[in-house]
Fold each of these.
Amino acid sequence: MVEPLPATTLMLLREGSAGPEVFLVQRNRHSGFLPNAWVFPGGRVDAGDRLDGHPAVRGGERVLSRWGIDRATGIAHLVAGVRETFEECGIWLGDRAPPASEREPLANGNRRFVDVLADSGAVVDLDRLTPWAWWVTPAVERRRFDTRFLVAVVDGLAVGAHDERETVASGWFSPARVVEEGTLGTFPLAPPTWWTLRELAAHPTLEAILAEAERRPQRPIQPIMQFLPDGMVLLLPGHPAHPEPAIPGLPTEVVHEGGRWVALEGTVRLPLVP
């Protein structure tokens, strides 16, 4: 079994004309992981993200207390989320944002994040991040990630732009709309992204989303993947065939059938949006 690599995903949220909106990017069809899928910005934790104690990295204690992991690892997860978000969509979580021209050199490895911080005077504000969920890729997959999901609210005028390399499209979307389009099969989504969007869609305001984030349990969710003649099934904690106890608010099973995802609690199919 392949050990999962640490990764971080950020759900960027802003106030839209009809309620909360979330920023999504679409992966390149040649991507080695989730090609064509719409995802939240984020990626793997790199060695250069281990910046605990760096003067340009501030905050993070509130998140670390929720996660209960060692400080160096936790800070690296948070810094990776800020770095990857800047690389993938140009939105900066902190003060004195680096110039947009640094995005590509960072992404292709020609620039170190620590050097970008030093040269631009940028400051990373980890207190902008709030934990949401923790997903681990199923054991049967060849590429696996141990991913921390967090939310961050940005200014309503924030635009964002995909990088035209790893991602080929982007935009701000109503979570409920994306859940509907994903269920119809016209908006390809990975199961954790689909379910997370459904969770966000259950809350009508940014304040409600943040309040929910503050009380959510921080337990790993590692689905058990099974393939059936008519589709794929992901068994989640609480399912009789899963070794972990149930997590409040999480379904016990997610099924892919007819090109769409369906969530079940026992034998009951959950509605599209609560």
Amino acid sequence: MNETHDPQQRSWVQSANAPGTDFPIQNLPFGVFRRADGSESFRGGVAIGDQILDLAAALNRGALDGTVAQAAGAAAAAPTLNEFMAAGPQAWSALRLALSRALRQGSAQQQGLQDCLVPALQAEHAVPARIGDFTDFYSSIHHATAAGRLMRPDRPLLPNYKWVPIGYHGRSSSITVSGQQFPRPTGQALAGGVAHPTVRPSKRLDYELELGVFIGPGNALGSRIPIDEAESHVFGLCLLNDWSARDLQVWESQPLGPFLAKSFATTLSPWIVTLEALEPYRLPWTRPAGDPQPLPYLDSLGLRRIGAIDIELEVAIETAAMRRAGAAPSRLSRSNFSYCYWSIAQMVAHHTINGCNLQSGDLLGTGTQSGPQPPEAGCLLELTRGGKQLLTLSNGETRSFLEDGDAVIMRGWCERADAARIGFGQVVGRVLPAIP
């Protein structure tokens, strides 16, 4: 905790002081943007209220104090954030402090920086880093149990789950930023009571409510990241929707796991919230006394003290009919990242225990974040009990899985009385008809 977390701080960007804003001066998340007319190159920016601070323009104005902050600002102003991510926690913190001081009420930098702001509504975004590799974990025991119960009612949770953070290597080329529209995926599926599979568009298209974890400094091939050092290798978090074709998935996943059912689209929110900004929302990480306690490389006093984070997560749907009528989206569920069985540090430490080398800009998905109660489920597979129980939406429509024209909207935020509210913005994606 430091002066950037002070809940009394206010910004000369007035929209950053509005109640309920996702991007107050205590947040300052990083992303990549340009004006929506397409006349400019993508470059690094920072969200502040309803504005984006253009980091390249701010550097040109000499607005960043300190050698470290200037070097970090130059890296963060690039078309991707990989170099900035690789610079490590000292550089991230120095730039964030310099930005906080420059954007506060009474700052001598106000006049010089006002022309460096771009209204967020006039901007478009790109994926904030060059993602070399994407690994998706299965870190919510509530999701693992609920999904497992649909396939194995007598043994929903497999024996290894409470011992090892389960994950699989996904596809990075189909990761895109919020606003993505994609055709319904086609692949092999086996219908009930039929002897042979057919090739057809998915009939059981689903979303997954997740967080994305961006890696900062990597580790050398053949080395390990100890758990107490793991978070120094994490730049920050974003929202992640790992779209899933459940009917393709159940057929093709035997025995090696997801393939075409997951590789057609993954959507990220544009802004990466740093771990430093999330410090006020730390919680102790716990494991139920009756469960196996983590093996030594996955456990530490630091993890137990502050290894969890209190992040509210929400998912809503906007159908084509709602869009035509101008109706508000219908909320589907709400959960919290603090329910997570495996922490961020444990995912990183386990990923490297075999000597695997993580690289700056790599992305980890947390897996579907579900809570212990049915309304806290993070996907339609759980909410509809595998499609057997229809959901009734706010306008009277029903869903078992997603239909063409449906848009899924995910939001995340941290909020409590003695700290500034920190938001993640939102991630939105829309399903189009399958390619003929």
